[in-house]
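Quick look at the format.
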Amino acid sequence: MELEAVERQPVASAIDRRQIFFLLVSVALFVGFFLPSIVFLVERWSSSEEFSHGFLVPLVSLFLLWRKREVIRQTPLQVCPWGLLVMALGLLMQVASEWASVAFLKSLAVPVALGGLAWYLTGTRMMRVALFPYLFLYFAVPWPDFMIELLSVPLQHFSAASSAMLLGLMGVPIERDGVHMWTPRFDVEVAVPCSGIRSMVAILGIAALVGYLTQGRLWAKGAVFLSGIPITMLANILRIAAIVVMGHYISADFAMTFFHDYSSPFLFFISALSLLGVKKIVERV
């Protein structure tokens, strides 16, 4: 029996080396084929304020996988042919994006194909362990332009109307016409960047992460995630109202050159605290 155990050990290590070699070759082929899409994603993250958080998303996913390292070690690797179908879908997206010049498909093809490759190489059980870290990668995919335009206009008007109502309740002499608001000393227009769409993209990712870390049933996690939408809108309304207050009572230069440009971290801080508050509330229910 001891002789058999000694003889089997080199075989197992050889299989492991073949698996590692096959994994490295697959990753190299994946990067080579999807390199144009990966470069496109990096350029979009670098040039767009709405999706500059894309650089952090893969790092967060890797951290979440690292937290599950013990479970991953105990989960056996199995080849799953179904992953090839998902990877084929990602390949079709890549080809279609080049053929039809659809930027959104080019961005979406990368995580779709990556998920298919991982599913094929590691199996269903491993993908269940890594499901959320994988799905979290989709927060790095830039939204299509038509979706941003579709959401920005109603958010502009809602933010302007709500901010004007709040300022009126505070006693600030405010007038509004559409997205244009003014006081006797200051006037401002709620443009597309101030509609809240930029913050919503990033804060929804934070809400998903906080929801994932929430202890409790699935409804509690979903409630935390969905709360990111009203929290983002409320934080943006408070930010616009604060800009008007600063412009009216201090100076327009201070409101537009300092507070307007540097209040975004404050918005994220308030939103993150609010999400943590919702997390504590639903965990006690």
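Next, a different chain entirely:
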Amino acid sequence: MAKRVRAVDPWKLKKWYSVISPRIWDEKEVGSTAASDEKLLYGRVLQVPASFLTGSVGHAQYILKFRIVQVVGSEARTIFEGYELDNAFIKRLTRRHSSKIEVVFDVKTRDDHVLHVKAITWTAVHVSRNQATAIRKIMQQMIEERAQKFGADELMKEFVIGDFTRKIADEASKIAPIRRVEVAKVRVLQRPEKQDAEKITAAEAAA
């Protein structure tokens, strides 16, 4: 009679790693992930509500994205890839008899990152096409000016927990009554070549 071979649970062969946020988010543990080989962790993206890091429920609608680029012992270290506003939150802000004004563009930061940005303004009343165009121009111009003063990580963090969108709203209110302004989505399109090389070198050294 053939001897039965027990199947090995693949999860028992995996090791768990703590996922650590970048320095701009205070290098806090934001979750855990498992892998049978640490090399399989590289490139994984973890999504976390900003409230998990700030402790404020007012930031729960911002979904932060961190990509694993380095493994040190049992820690998987990440870079900030961007964030997006929760779709349900956007739908709640969109109402009849008002306008939702969007602008989408790419912007270069002070530290030579290229970010893909989507900003939205919700007005208190329905606005004309000319008013909407003027508000789009304000959003893009103010974000571009801000990007010249900040690095990518600093800029994205300010969009989430700073008062910058309130400043846009104040300026746009000269055109029409404004209910809210949000930088609804930001994604890193391009990082400086030097920084990419440093990340690759660190990852290879840890592998």
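The radius of gyration is 21 Å.

See the schema section for token definitions.
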